[in-house]
Amino acid sequence: MGSTLFRPAWARAASSARKRKVVVVTFGGGARDQETFMLEGQENIPHLMSDLIPQASFFTQVVNRGILGHYVATASLATGVYETFNNFAAVSPESPTVFEYFRKDLKRPSSDAWV
Length: 115
Prior knowledge:
Layout (H helix, E strand, L loop, with lengths): L1 H4 L3 H11 L26 H7 L17 H10 L18 H9 L9
């Protein structure tokens, strides 16, 4: 324990970061408003409404004035940049994802962040 207390702050942070796992989940495909977030549909998502939303950032109004598609939408969420590539193209987003920033900042291998 003594050696832990006298290590530099960056070493303690790096050590605790290795033990902690973080999961980021985005979704948006296939869920109809009337079957989920409308009052009559909330019974279908009980854990989202009662367990997750009180602990999360929940955006109640989202506007899209461009390409609609699951891949483009997920890429936009992961990069923070509105992506405009063909939704059916097998391409990576031009902008780095939040997971790439995570890996670069913590000097982690590619196996530590999956998209």
